[in-house]
Structures are given as structure tokens and as C-alpha cells.
Design brief:
Layout lengths: L8 H6 L2 E4 L5 H12 L3 E6 L2 H11 L6 E5 L5 H14 L5 E4 L14 H29 L2 E6 L3 H4 L6 H21 L4 E8 L5 H4 L3 H10 L8 H11 L11 E4 L7
Parallel strand pairs: 1-2, 1-4, 2-3, 4-5, 5-6, 6-7
Helix pairs in contact: 2-10, 4-5, 5-7
The chain binds nicotinamide-adenine-dinucleotide.
């Protein structure tokens, strides 16, 4: 059984197949793009097939190194089905990026139980399911890399986002530690990335006034780069990252220091 040590590196590197959730746009798309550039075969998955098919075609017109799959992260069976499709068409799964999420801005006293549960189910329960299905599969094989997209909101309680979103992201940081302990002995590392405001459709959708307000509060006076986050995912999913696990990697322009 491989334990992700250097002696296994060439084999693991050759077999690099990654699955990214919510990959049709935004950070998921950028992460898929950087993984592909780094030599991974990449399954781009999303709630609707059309979006990820277009994303995969844009990144890999020949379709040799990508696979587009419908995977609604709130549906356990979708993970099971996706795993089988990935292994049949791309090879042994070695990396999973749990990126899919929804954001709501509702003030905390107005959040209904139904809305709270919807956000937590999409953002947090999905990470539990993914680790149980895909993580366990990689652990049984003896090698794997999992990266969960948390958020600065999960560390500071959030500013522009809702309480349900922030709570779900805080939960991801904790689940990351729990699965890192669970899978550590099996060669599977589990890390979280906690971005601050990053250049993405969401951030670009803000008014000019709001954009300037947000920038004025970021010590480095710029938004984060999706490609840099993609490169961080590449680093954390490399065989050499065997000793980095259970950590939350802050990429927030200095908004939150600890
Ligand atoms: N953009 C930022 O500034 C920022 C900051 C901190 C954390 N993040 C995190 O990074 C990740 C990506 O953010 P983004 O800005 O690209 O967001 P986005 O809204 O552009 O992308 C999220 C993706 O998740 C997908 N998705 C939503 N529900 C789904 C479901 N049930 N099943 C499958 N896919 C589903 C959406 O369709 C979309 O493609 C999220 O986890 C987000 O919380 C983003």
C-alpha cells in the first residue's frame, strides 16, 4: 500500500486524475485550468451538464484530458456515479477539489431554517459526502489529495456574506481537520483554502462604489487571483505535499492574520 512517500512519487504523479466540483465558472474553472496545465486529467463537474461541457471544451478542445460530468453535490448518488465514470474514462482518481458552494446575503435574523439548511447542505454536507465517498475510495487505494474551498468568512464570521454561508465555511475548516486525521494513515491528505475576496463573477458583479470600499479595506489593495488559488491547489495535490495536511491556507490579502 502506498503511503504517499517519495518512493511512490513517480507512480502517483503519472496517475494524476482530479475531480473538481462546481467547475463551470469562477474559481472552480480556474482551478481545473491550472490542474490541467500541471498535467492532471481533470473531471469538471457541475450541477448542470451544459455548463461543465462548455467549460471542458474551452479548456481542452480535443477532450483528451478532461471529462464533463453532472454532479449535484447535494446528491450522494451523483458522487458515486461520477467516481465510476472518472475511473472508467480518465483513470484512478487521485485528487478531489470540493469547490461548489452557494452564497446568500440574508441578514441573520431573517434567515429561515429552510434557507439555512439549503446553504449548509450545499456547502458543508457536500464536503462530508465527498470525503465519505471519494475520500474513502482514495484511502482504500492508499493515495489521495483533497482540497476543500473554505473562506475567510469561515474564520472571521463574514462581512459581505450571510451567517449560513460563514457557518458552513467554518464547518469546512473543522471537517478538513477531522478527515485529515481519519485519512492520514492511508496516504490521503486533506487541506482547506480560505480565500478572501477574489477576482470572480461575484466580485466583478459589485458596483464601482462597493468595489472601491472593499479594496480600501484590503491591506494589499487588490483582489485575489483565481489562478494563484489554482496553483496552490496544484501544490497541495502534488505527491510532494504528503506532510501538509489538516491545514487551512489563508489567501486573503492580509485581511485576517493569525
Ligand atoms: N470568489 C471569492 O471571492 C471567494 C472567496 C472565498 C471563498 N470562495 C469559495 O470558492 C468557491 C468558488 O467560489 P466562486 O466565487 O467561484 O463561486 P461561483 O458561484 O462563481 O461558483 C460556484 C459554483 O458552484 C456551483 N454549485 C452551486 N451549487 C451546486 C450544487 N448543488 N452542485 C454542484 N455545483 C453547485 C455553481 O453552479 C458554480 O458553478 C466557493 O466554495 C466559495 O465559497 C470564493
Amino acid at each position: 500500500m502506498s503511503n504517499g512517500t517519495t518512493s511512490e512519487t513517480p507512480k502517483a504523479a503519472k496517475a494524476s486524475v482530479a475531480l473538481v466540483t462546481g467547475a463551470a465558472q469562477g474559481l472552480g474553472f480556474a482551478i481545473a485550468s491550472r490542474l490541467l496545465a500541471a498535467g492532471f486529467k481533470v473531471a469538471l463537474t457541475g450541477r448542470e451538464l451544459e455548463g461543465v461541457e462548455a467549460a471542458a471544451a474551452a479548456l481542452d478542445p480535443d477532450g483528451e484530458n478532461t471529462l464533463a460530468l453532472k454532479l449535484d453535490v447535494t446528491v450522494r448518488q451523483d458522487f458515486v456515479t461520477a467516481l465510476a465514470a472518472v475511473e472508467a474514462r480518465l483513470g484512478t482518481l487521485t485528487a478531489v477539489v470540493n469547490n461548489a458552494a452557494v452564497t446568500r446575503m440574508t441578514p441573520v435574523l431573517e434567515i429561515t431554517e429552510a434557507e439555512f439548511n439549503e446553504v449548509v447542505t450545499t456547502n458543508l454536507t457536500s464536503v462530508l459526502t465527498s470525503c465519505q465517498v471519494l475520500g474513502k475510495h482514495m484511502a482504500d487505494r492508499g493515495y489521495g489529495r483533497i482540497v476543500n474551498l473554505a473562506s475567510l468568512a469561515g474564520q472571521n464570521g463574514g462581512t459581505a456574506t450571510g451567517a449560513h454561508y460563514a457557518a458552513s465555511k467554518g464547518g469546512i475548516i473543522t471537517l478538513t481537520k477531522i478527515f485529515a486525521k481519519e485519512f492520514g494513515p492511508c496516504g490521503v491528505t486533506v487541506n482547506a483554502i480560505a480565500p478572501g475576496p477574489t477576482d470572480s463573477p461575484l466580485v466583478r458583479g459589485m458596483s464601482e462604489e462597493k468595489t472601491q470600499q472593499v479594496l480600501a479595506n484590503i491591506p494589499v489593495r487588490q483582489f485575489g487571483s483565481p489562478d494563484f488559488l489554482g496553483d496552490l491547489v496544484v501544490l497541495l495535490t502534488s505527491p510532494e505535499a504528503a506532510f501538509a495536511t489538516g491545514a487551512t491556507w489563508d489567501v486573503n490579502g492580509g485581511l485576517y492574520m493569525r
